[in-house]
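This section describes the prediction task in plain terms. A model, or a person checking by hand, is given the sequence of a single protein chain and must write out its three-dimensional structure as a string of tokens. No templates, partner chains or ligands are provided. The sample shown here is typical of the held-out split.
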Amino acid sequence: MPTLDTLDDAAAAKAFRRLVRHLRHRTDAQNIDLMGLAGFCRNCLADWIAEADPSLSKDDAREIIYGMPFAQWKARHQGEATPEQIERMNESVKRNHVEAQLDDALDDSFPASDPPSMSEPGR
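The expected answer:
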């Protein structure tokens, strides 16, 4: 039985691409809400791609995830975060550092990205 570390790279890549396509489709799932619930968002995925392939810039990696330049996606789909969303995100991100089950790579990458829209309209 494969484990996460022994799963075939082609199968893992196919699942990752499906996740990214799903997130592109679900523009209603705001990054701030993803951060508040799961402690990661689209920007985190992009940052992980850039970390895995240093030849990619942060902007290149975000365009891979968003399917368009990040500024364009923000203007079309990202609303301003509420204070409640920001608080949920902050509490959730704290858990990324205290959960013993997370591997060391996560500790090195969180917070992996710029926080989603906090105070800048259209961010």
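For orientation: The longest helix spans residues 9-25.
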